Every structure is written in structure tokens, then in C-alpha cells.
Amino acid sequence: MAKGRRYDIVLFGATGFTGRLTAEYLARNGGDTLRWALAGRSPDKLGEVRARLVDLNAGCRGIDLLQADVDDPASLQALAESARVVVTTVGPYIVHGEPLVAACAAAGTDYVDLTGEPEFVDRMWLKYHDTARTNGARIVHCCGFDSLPADLGCWFTMQQMPEDVPLRVQAFVRVGGTFSGGTLHSAVLALSRLGLSGKVKRARRAREGWPVDRRVGGLHHGLRYVREIGGWAVPAPVIDPQIVQRSAAALDRYGPDFRYGHYLQLKKASSVAQLLGGTAAVLIAAQFKPTRERLLKIRGPGDGPSEAQRAKGWFKVHFIAEGGGKTLRCEVAGGDPGYGETAKMLAESALSLAFDKLPRTAGCVTPVQAMGNALIERLQRRGIRFRVLE
Ligand SMILES: NC(=O)c1ccc[n+]([C@@H]2O[C@H](COP(=O)([O-])OP(=O)(O)OC[C@H]3O[C@@H](n4cnc5c(N)ncnc54)[C@H](OP(=O)(O)O)[C@@H]3O)[C@@H](O)[C@H]2O)c1
């Protein structure tokens, strides 16, 4: 970890929807001794964010504001060299993310983001993993709802299971909540680039290799009714299974033969039909510029669910693990998945990298590899529940 830096944490993108929530979380919970700064491209907007923070915590009056733009590499170099950990909510990451990863890898600065974009994660591994490893930087993607509940929840579940036996884990996700403009833009862009994403994934797999003395892979169930959960399981086209399998490839504790499946859980067949129809329509619309632009107008950048809408949000991820003669159910659950809890997860990831005693890692690593149980404990203290069900 970088020493002798002016700030423990710099939050880049502090003026966006999730960035503001993350700033508010740090103002409330970061502690009086935290040395942190807000960064973004607009000094006026940064000033507004700081004014709001002062209402929450008068100690925020002295927080520095750093001007930085993804199109200005010198500003990102200065930002990366000023901090022990940089947190970024500047997305879509495939458009805006790379220069900051490059700056942090070069400066040996720890980095966390909120991406759920597989192409971005794989590209960054291909281009910056070696530099980050050489310079001692931990580049940790997917520290929001994508993919902390799945990655940490599976790790939590694994640790209750017998060691050195083949294990299979299935995760069933239920959510109630809505999305921001930034999330909509990132998701639509990712859907329009599925072909490219597959190519980059294969290039990474060819270079990265995979364990030779253990097996790590996916469970490939199609749509089905699962009696144990009393509902339908729809294979979820999200990044979480890739992150979980990478954690399993990195750590022997996942056993000699580890299989993981990740599904959305729905109660009624009619909801499944609605979901599949809606997903197909969005997937098709994302491929063509005119329909893509119409989709993006649903919600603009900076816009997102109101406080009242967020207060009604919730998520539950139900894990069923089997192996070594044991079957176990665990659950990770919390409030508004996309924003309130995501801001908490992101901020606590940054605090964990800055202050916790963690395993020695460097390069592009998963949340479990970088922070594991220390982050589970932090999130539990802040109200996200990790528990064994039976
Ligand atoms: N995985 C998850 O669970 C999860 C949950 C929530 C969000 N996200 C992701 O987080 C990202 C942000 O979402 P959001 O809703 O907060 O988006 P948003 O409100 O549109 O915020 C985007 C931020 O990026 C900044 N930005 C844009 N271009 C920039 C540039 N050239 N230089 C510097 N800063 C620039 C914006 O600055 P200005 O204010 O100056 O425009 C703003 O601060 C998205 O990629 C979204 O998918 C992920």
C-alpha cells in the first residue's frame, strides 16, 4: 500500500448520483481522523457537494476539492499520487474508466470502483494487472451490488462447509428497487457490446490461465422451478459468477472441484415471462443507435431514485451449498441494493483497503481476494446481514 500520501481516500465522481451518496456515507461514518478529498471535473458542483456534507458533519468544512477530468491524464496522475486509495463512480467505465486505472496502477495506489461491466474488468486485467502487481496497487472492481453480495456471500458460505471436498453453490437473488441514469447508460452500453466483451474475455482466459490441480467452473442450469426456494430460477446475465469463480480460482479453500450458479429468483411464472420479454426487448433495442438513444432518454446522467424510493428498496441473496455430505443455506440481505447499500459497500471497501489488516495481494484482484472477511465484518457492523439459515 502506498505510504506518505496526503489523503487516505479520494472520491472521484463525487458529483454524480452514487458519488454523492458515497460522499454522504463517508461524511457520516468515515470518522474524524479520515483524511479524504472530493474529486470531479466541476469545481462548482464539488463545492455544492461539500456544502451538503457540512450540513451532515461540520468537520467536512475543511475537505479539499480536487479538479480532475478523465480526458486530462496529468490531473489523474496527480489524483492517484495524492491518495492511498482512490474510489471512483465515474461511469460508464468502458467509456471513462481506463485512464484512472492506468494512473493508479502506475502510482501503486489502491483503487475501487462500482463497475458491473465484464468487458471493462477483463480489459483492465489484460492491460494493467502486471503493472499494478509490480507497483503494489490493488485494483478491485465490482465493489457495489455487483458483486459484493455474491462474492462475499459465497465466501461466507464456503467457510461453513467441509474442506478439501467438491462443492457446489447456487445463489438466488431477489431485489426490490429501481435504477439511476448512470446505471442505465452503463447497462445499455454493455448490452450493445456483447460480441466485443466475449472476445476480451477469451483473450484474458488465454493469458491468465486457470488452476491445473483443481477444478473451478459454472453450473449451467437453464430456467427452472426450484422447490427448495419455492420459486423460478432464471440464469442472471450479470458479472457476479465471473467474479465468484475468479475468487475460487485464486483461493484453495474453495476445494478441489468448485461449481457456482447464479440466478434471479421469481415467484410467479408470469413475472418470469415479463422479465424475459423485457430483457429481450432491451437487448434488441441496445443494438441499434436510434432505439438505443430512445432507451437512454428514460433516465439521464445524474438522475436516480428519490430518498423515499430508496428507503423502500431491499435485496436478499439466498445461497445453497452442497458437498462433503452437507447441505447448507446462507443469506446475505440488506436495504436498497443499487444506491444506499451500494454507496455503503463502496465506501466500506475503500476504508477496508485503507485501514484493515488484509492478506498481501496486488494487481487486479477480486473483493474476496483483497478484503475477504475484513469487509464482511465491516458490512455486518453497518447492517448488511450475512447469516446461516439452517
Ligand atoms: N454495480 C452496482 O451495483 C452499481 C450501482 C450504482 C451505480 N453503478 C455504476 O456507477 C456508475 C455511476 O452511476 P451514477 O448513477 O452515479 O452516474 P452519474 O450520476 O451519471 O455520475 C457519473 C459521474 O461521472 C462524472 N463524469 C462523467 N464524465 C466525466 C469526465 N470526463 N471526467 C470526470 N468525471 C466525469 C460525472 O461528473 P459531472 O457531475 O461533472 O457530470 C458524475 O460525477 C455507473 O457506471 C453505474 O453503472 C453501479
Mean pLDDT: 93
Tell me the number of strands: 15
Q: Please give the domain count.
A: 2
Alpha-beta classification:
alpha/beta
Name the overall outline. Answer: globular
Helix content: 40-55%
Ends distance: 39 Å
- Poorly predicted spans: none
Major sheet: 8 strands, mixed
Radius of gyration: 20 Å
The percentage of residues in β strands lies in 15-25%
Bound molecule kinds, no repeats: NADP nicotinamide-adenine-dinucleotide phosphate
- The number of helical segments is 16
Please tell me about this protein's structure.
The protein has 390 residues and is an alpha/beta fold. Helices cover 46% and strands 22% of the residues. The chain has two domains: 7-144 and 340-383, 3-Layer(aba) Sandwich (Rossmann fold); 148-335. It contains 16 helices and 15 strands. Helix 6 runs parallel beside helix 9 (194-208), helix 7 (148-158) packs across helix 16 and helix 14 (340-355) packs across helix 16. The site of NADP nicotinamide-adenine-dinucleotide phosphate has 35 residues, from helix 1, helix 4 and helix 8.
